[in-house]
Every structure is written in structure tokens, then in C-alpha cells.
What does this fold into?
Amino acid sequence: MTAVAAPSVASLVQSVDWLAIAPPTIAAVVALAVLVADLFLGDRRKALLGWVSVAGLAAAALSLLPLLDGDRSTFCLDTLKGEQAACSYTADHFTLVIQFLVLAGALLTALLSVTGIKDVKNTTRELPEGEFWFLLLSSAAGAALLPASRDLATLVVALEVASLPAFALVGIKRDDRRSAEAALKFFLSSVTATAVTLLGVSFVYATTGTLHLTRIATALTHVDGQFQTLAQAGVALTLVGFAFKTAAAPFHFWVPDTYVGAPLPVAAYLSVIGKAVGFSGLILVTVVAFPSYADVWGPALAALAALTMTVGNVAALRQQATRAYSAVRLLAWSSVGQAGYLLVPIAAAAYSKDAGKAIGSTVAYALMYAAVNLGAFAVAALVARTKPLNRISDYRGLYASRPLAALVLGFFLLSLAGLPPGIIGLFAKVTVFSAAVDAGLGWLAVVMAVNVVIALYYYLRWTATLFRPAEEPAEEPAGEQQVQRVPAPLTAAIGLTAIIGVALSGAPQIVLRFASTGLF
It folds into this structure.
């Protein structure tokens, strides 16, 4: 009995490639360290937690460098001769690009938050710093794990590790009714998405007998006729679950209220890292796991892309400049419209012979969008320090009071619109447009062109507001007439995003080459 049992016990012992899993592991370890340190630090030394978190995210991002020399995999199954290898964690080029986006975005969010959480006041107390940093780092760890996941179980777990702390971050202003309502909407929509995703995953597992993406792709090509309907339902439900996570219409209803209710750094985090999580998961399940069902998810994603960009841009167009939090609402609806653009190349991958090239367009667009959108939120955080209602009309005369901030915000908005001097935005939109045309989706390219024109109006209207003369201010004491000093971390976040945006506008082809080389 012992001789028989020994091999099966030995087969359960796996060697772990610690270098491959270093990025999410470092973020998770620093999160636990911050949580424990919070118990022993006095209120005056809580600020150290923020800088420890910034350092931890920087270390996690730097740990990507040793992985550039080639693909690495770990947590793999023992395979029989001739059987396809199956691993749960793979650090390939796609993984590294998305992990870089996630960790760099989380690092910029942390810089916004170092002083930003001090600026946010509850009615009775300040935000709990230790909890905030623990939640942010935990979410970043889950987001970094997701693009490396190569089985559905790990994919769903990573998705929830990224999402669950985000609920708490949105509702962290404990005495704020708006924050509580935003967190509840976000929670209910995400729980629904998770339930639908798990139902789809269970159907896929029932028809294929495996959770590994590559083996699912093989098994779905020869499903028994009596299970075809079940397999199609599983594919469709899994896609619907990820559509919730990407804020694709009609599953976008939680976005504007969530962004307004959350602290601005958290809204910035959700607009970039939240989208990166959803879209990387969507890419993995469509291109890697369900390529044989491209005739199902291709048209569905194309329709979702058209609907999402239209709903987002039309709603952003209707924002009133004098409404409270209209600047944040416009950025929220704009992010829904941008999600529509991001869906276009994924839909095109269903019709393209080179899926990697089409997916590269989505990844390149996501990198551009991350830099300029985080920059726009950073300037919004700067304005909110003196004008907490953050209306678009509050930005009138910004050039007169803060010329550099106005110029930088103008650049970010023009980049999102796809106009010079934001060449990176124009390049990204042309790349997405080309992916649709090359795949034969001419109608979707036309819908995208119309939406780009719609978006031009509200982006240019906001940009023009920056340079208009300010309205006559009310009389203020002499001490309050001076422009407040901008905290160094906030200045660093604005400066870094501006430098990245300008540099990439000078050489936009670098983004596409970096994003699309060796994908799948």
C-alpha cells in the first residue's frame, strides 16, 4: 500500500517559481505588513504607511524586469506523453504588459492618495489610513494576479481579490451617505456579475471537464451534440459576467454614482485598474479559452462595443457644467465611452487571422488611456482641494490661477479626444479603427467615428473652459487669496503622467510595439 501511495503523494508537491509570481506576491506581502504596522503606529506616524505602500508598489513593478527574458510558468499539472501542458500561472508578454499597467497605475493612485486621504473628511472623523492602504494594496495584488491566471478558478479568485477591497475603498467615507450608496451599487452589481460568471464557468466545466484555458479551448472543439447548448450558455454567461466588470452597456449603471461617491484617488483607480482587470480577463476567456466559439462572442462584443461607446459619449455630452461633481461625472461617462473603444479590437479578434495583433490594439489603447486618464483625475484632485464640488464651471479661469495645471489638463483632455498635441490619443484611436476595418467590421468603424466626433465636443468644451476668464470672485480675506501650495506627491503624480503622455506622443509607435509583440 505504501509503495502505491507514495507516487501520488509526491505528485502533489510542486516547485514554485517565486520570481514569476513576485509582482502580485510583493504587493500582497506589503499589504499584510501595512495592516500589522497600523496596529502599532500612533496617529502622527500613520503617514509612514502611505510611503511604505508607495515603495512596495514600486518594488512590485521593478520585479517585472527579471521576467522580460522569456515566458515562465508555474503551478503546472503533470502531463502524460503527448498531452498538452496546463499551468495555472503564466508570466508571458501579455501578463507582463498588463501587470505593468496595473502596478504603475496603482503607484500613481498611491501618490494621489498620500495627501488625498487627508483632504477627505468625514463628518466626525478622518479616513482610516491603515485600512485604506491595506485595501489598495490587496486590490492591486489581485489585479496583478489576474492577467497571469490561466485557469478559470484562479481567474475568478483573482477577479474577486481585486474587486472585494474596491467595494470597501468606495465606501470608506463611513459617515457620507453618497459614499455608502455608491459602495452599495458597486457591490450589488459586482456580486451579480460574479454569480453570472460562476454559473457560466460551471457550465463550461460540465461540458469540458477542465478549468485550464488551453485545455478548454481544445475540449470545446469536440463537445457532444447533447451538450452544445450547455456549452454555448456557459460561454455566453461568462462573457456577460465580464461585461459587468468592464462597465460595458447595459451593465454600466453603477459607474457614475460610484465615481462620485468614492474618494477621487479611488475613482481614478477604478477608471484604470478596474478596467484593466475586466478587459484582461475578457481577453483571456475569449481569445485563449473560447476561440472555437468566436461566432458567438465576436458579434456579441461588437454589439456591446457600439452600444457602450454611444451610451457613454451621449451621457457625457449631456453633463451640465454647473451641476455638483459634473467634472467627475463627465470623466465617469467618458470612461464608459472609452470602454466601448477598448472592446472594438477584442471583437475584431473573432474575425481576424492574427488575434494577437488585434488584442495588441486593445492593450496599446489601455496603456494610453491609463496615463492620460490618471493625469486628468490628478488635476481634478488638485482643483478639488479648493473647490470640493468639482463642477466643470469651477475650472473656468484655471489657466490664470494655475497655468501649468491648466495646460496639462488641456493636454490630457485633447489626448482623450484624439487631437494634437495629444498624438498618443490620436494614434491609439487610429489603431483601434484599423483593427475594426481589417477585420471587416466596417459598420463598427463608422459607429466609432461618429462617437469620436461626439466626444470631441465635450472634451473641447471643457478644454476651452480652462482658458476663459474667471467669474468675479466673492470678497475673501487676504490670507485666503493666495494660491494653496500643491503637495509634492500630487505634483509628482501630475508631472509623471504629463511626462509619459508627452513622451509617448513623440513616439507613439513604441506603445503599439511594446503592447503587441508576442501576444498569444
